[in-house]
Amino acid sequence: MKTSDFDFGVPRELVAQVPVEPRDSSRLLVLDRKKDKLEHRRFNELPAFLEEGDALVFNDSRVIPARLRGNLHLEPMSEIVIVLLRDLGDHVWEAEVEVGEVKIADIVDFTGLYGQVIKLGERIGRREERLVHIVISDEDALEKAGEPPVPPYIHGYKGDPERYQTVYSRIRGSAAAPTAGLHFTDRLLNELREKGVNLCFVTLHVGLDTFMPVYEDHPEEHKMYTEYCYLGKEVVEVLQKTKEMGKRVICVGTTSCRTLETASQNGRLVPFIGPTSLYILPGYQWKSVDCMITNFHYPSSTNLIMLASFVGLERLRAAYMEAVRLKYRFYSFGDSMLVL
């Protein structure tokens, strides 16, 4: 197995630069694994594929304005861009330096917000970006100083920052959106509740693991970083009952999948709080997830590799090629898949 096996070609013009309106009018590619069948729908038709007693599992993490632009203190011609990845406590953050070079003790002026580098980490993959630990002077000022950390393949997005949040986001902490959930509206959530679908919420704060491509030639050599996740007792009880009734657990996004699979022990879900570095590759034996709602993923990403383990590599490749042929919109602001 090579990383290049997961490098599905997507024409640049199909990479969505803005979200559709309304959210649930995006297209939905339905992949039925048992019937080996594809259907082409709209996301607002999702309730037609769910049954009373099924459980949808959402990631309720909220994206912070994690991208900060500034310059080295007293060096106004310098340019420093960082993305905050993980809150380490006591105002210390793990961050990725996207632009510029820093060293220990450097102070960065982010226009009303200051950060001081206290630790230099490794270079990331084959890129020049570096991980650092940085002390943020006033975290309350992040809302004004920071920008939504939209991915680099989205160029110059100036739209409503709330469109890079799910409508049910609650707990601040993500450095990127759990994008499978961007298609849900309050109206659609209410329709699902009225149908008897259980809506369950877990938390995984999206960090480097979720959005970083695999640079190694062989995917099993890729290093996974850690992300915080939480699965509460009440949700565990709902999901256990769902299984006992013969109904389906349907995860909204790969982050919800990783949370449930991390919390699966000896064939059962247990409450969990803490870091996960679970890396799901083809050959993985899935324990808790029956179906999945997911966006179209970036080539050679850990998300795409995970999805291939759930669907099968060749079947997934065929579905992506069909989506390209029919000009679906790809990646974070793009269309969606339902894998049954």
Offer a concise description of the structure.
This protein is an alpha+beta fold and 340 residues long. The protein has seven helices and 19 strands.
Please provide a written account of the structure:
The chain is an alpha+beta fold and 340 residues long. Helix content is 18%, strand content 30%. It has a 9-stranded mixed sheet. Strand 1 and strand 2 form a beta hairpin. The longest helix has 13 residues. It is globular. It starts with 26 loop residues before the first strand and ends with a strand.
Strand numbers in spatial order across the main sheet: 2-1-19-18-14-3-12-13-17
Q: Give the helix tally.
A: 7
SS-based class: alpha+beta
Assembly classification: single chain
Which percent bin holds the helix content? 10-25%
CATH structural class of the largest domain: Alpha Beta
Q: Which spans have pLDDT < 50 for at least 5 consecutive residues?
A: none
Helix/strand order, N-terminal first: EEEEEEEEEEHEHEHEHEHEEEEHHE
CATH architectural name of the largest domain: 3-Layer(aba) Sandwich
Largest sheet: 9 strands, mixed
Over the alpha carbons, how many angstroms does the gyration radius reach? Answer: 20 Å
What is the straight-line distance between the termini?
A: 25 Å
CATH overall fold name of the largest domain: QueA-like
Q: What shape does the CA trace take? A: globular
Which whole number gives the mean pLDDT?
Answer: 93
Count of strand segments:
19
Under CATH, the homologous superfamily of the largest domain reads: QueA-like
Percent of residues in β-strands? 25-35%
Count structural domains: 2
